[in-house]
Amino acid sequence: MATFSRSIDLEYQNYGIDVQCQAPLFVRTNMTGLRTNIFIVPADVFSRWSVRWMGYDSLCCPFWWHSVQDYIMRSLDALTVRSFFRSFLNMHREALEANGGYQSHL
Fold first, then answer.
1. 99 vs 28, which has greater pLDDT?
2. Is the pTM of this model over 0.90?
3. Does 67 map to a domain?
């Protein structure tokens, strides 16, 4: 999605059209069932930061802590990042199970 957005941005910039891809990490919403912590920001907070970043870069992580996390993950090797995301996916599954919204299809 980021590459596609960047390509569209380059293609249409001569027409005065800006395309921006905002890449959030984990955002707490009613649908996710996650609790807010240092890694997970509430949707209203993310929305405020997201609006502030409109028009600056074609690709960004609007919330400052997500930008820090993105930098750290880009500095790590793929195996470390995969285990990091797997732990968050497990946390999400557990939150859904606790709310009765997760059914295993295995």
1. 28
2. no
3. yes
